[in-house]
Amino acid sequence: MCPPNKLLEDERQAVMAALNSEAFKDLPPSQVVPRLADTGVYVASESTMYRLLRQEGQLAHRRSERAAQKRSRPRALAATGLDQVFCWDITYLPTQVRGQHFYLYLFEDLFSRKIVGWQVFDGESAELASQLLQGICARHNTRPGQLTVHSDNGAPMKGETMHGHHAAPGSGAHAQPSVREQ
After folding, report:
1. Intervals of the chain under pLDDT 50
2. CATH code at 85-174
3. pLDDT tens digits, one per residue of 107-133
4. Pair 102, 122: CB distance under 8 Å
5. Which of 37, 49, 114, 115 could form a disulfide with 29 if both were Cys (CB 3.0 to 4.6 A apart)?
6. Model's pTM, two decimal places?
């Protein structure tokens, strides 16, 4: 037994005809309903229109934003020994003086979880991080192409200076946006 307020087939076709008319074919129901109301016409509720469009597979092209892109999972970084993968981040350090703060740059070996280098600066830049990493690589005798440096997507971490100094092209690794780091 169907509910008494269920749309009849001819009502359903009338709603779909209105939604697919030349005036509304590219608009979402959130815009169709008010425009119809301005002319004194009520065909169906906004939620009913969304439900019918979803059932008919016509909802995707009516959005104002681009369709969602399929994102691949970032490649898993695995270290089987020391000095293969370094993870790094910049941490904001407040002080007792209002308006004064520092930044802690910290590099950690993924395999051993040992802090391989750190320094406190009064600014945040890819150049400072690159200089620090060069010193760390010199102390650890890493060869070009041996090291993968992993970071999140912060601006200093994606800077060209950083990419140019730390390793072979393509060896930098960044977290994908909206992918939780573990």
Report:
1. 166-171, 174-182
2. 3.30.420.10
3. 999 999 999 999 999 999 889 999 999
4. yes
5. 49
6. 0.53
